[in-house]
Design goal:
There is one protein chain. The protein has 242 residues and is α/β, with parallel strands linked by helices. Helices cover 24% and strands 39% of the residues. The protein folds into 2 domains: 53 residues, no CATH class; 164 residues, Vaccinia Virus protein VP39 (Rossmann fold, 3-Layer(aba) Sandwich). It has 7 helices and 13 strands. Strand 5 and strand 6 form a beta hairpin. The longest helix is centred in the middle third of the chain and has 13 residues. Bound molecules: S-adenosylmethionine.
């Protein structure tokens, strides 16, 4: 049986069998045990079952940041932990960063905590995630993160940024044009895509180039985050757009 601990909640994978959940809760020092079947829809909402306990809200500590979240309402991907810190460490002093799919602050909070960004603009469409984003800004005592409740397709054109994080998969390429149009000259794009392994080195960068029009695109890095499905990788492309 595989499990992961998020704050003081234990998440079991599909291989769990009938168990003494009370004993398991004591062993792992958790208040609740859940199973998350899958994450559904654009707003990335969990379809879940509670196996033990009742409280689904917790505070998860990661990379020196605090993330308050309700695992019955919003997702948490443990596999993205290194990427969350990697991006934060790349941000240079006084940059304006735009986080287009901010969620509860998966990227915005580490950037706020670990960098000297001038401003982090964090756009999120799901009201539940937005509520936790606002709480997490307070919890981490950040004064340079601006939360916006709305659709990044509509909100992004209102801003200009030195760095844009596109931390969403499946349809992210539909948002490339709007992102690139808001990126300052020489700005950096962090573009996420789930891609068949054999297209990893071609399709994502070709999509960026096709949406950049006359602007030059420099590929900086292709970063593999995790296996998304058999033969499919979740990758992030770091690209400079001049
Ligand atoms: C859950 S995050 C992805 C996970 C994250 N990359 C991590 O490190 O764990 C994606 C977020 O994008 C939000 N989202 C989806 N479409 C959106 C849109 N058009 N505008 C703003 N936010 C959007 C979803 O509600 C969700 O909270």
């Amino acid at each position: 049986m595989k499990y992961k601990k998020i704050g003081d909640i234990l998440i079991l994978d599909n291989s769990y069998s009938k168990n003494d959940f009370e004993e398991l809760s004591k062993k792992h020092n958790v208040k609740t045990i859940m199973k998350i079947d899958h994450i559904q829809g654009t707003k990335r909402e969990p379809i879940y079952k509670i196996l033990y306990g009742s409280e689904t809200e917790t505070i998860n500590k990661e990379n020196g940041c605090l993330f308050k979240l309700d695992l019955a309402k919003v997702m948490w991907s443990k596999g993205n932990n290194n990427e969350r810190l990697r991006i934060a460490k790349l941000v240079e002093d006084d940059e304006t960063v735009l986080d287009m799919f901010a969620g509860i602050g998966y990227f915005s909070i580490p950037i706020g905590v670990h960098s000297n960004a001038k401003e982090v603009i964090s756009i999120e469409i799901n009201p539940n995630s937005y509520e936790f984003l606002c709480e997490n800004i307070k919890l981490n005592k950040l004064n340079n993160v601006t939360p916006i409740l709305g659709d990044c397709m509509v909100e992004t054109p209102k801003f200009k940024a030195d760095r844009i994080v596109m931390g969403y998969v499946k349809t992210t390429h539909h948002y490339l044009k709007v992102a690139i149009d808001s990126l300052n000259k020489g700005g950096i794009l962090h573009y996420h895509e789930t891609v068949p392994e054999k297209l990893m080195k071609t399709r994502p960068i070709e999509r960026i180039i096709s949406q950049a029009g006359n602007r030059d695109v420099e590929l900086i890095k292709i970063n593999k985050i995790k296996k998304y499905a058999p033969g499919v990788e979740h990758v992030v492309i770091d690209a400079r757009i001049d």
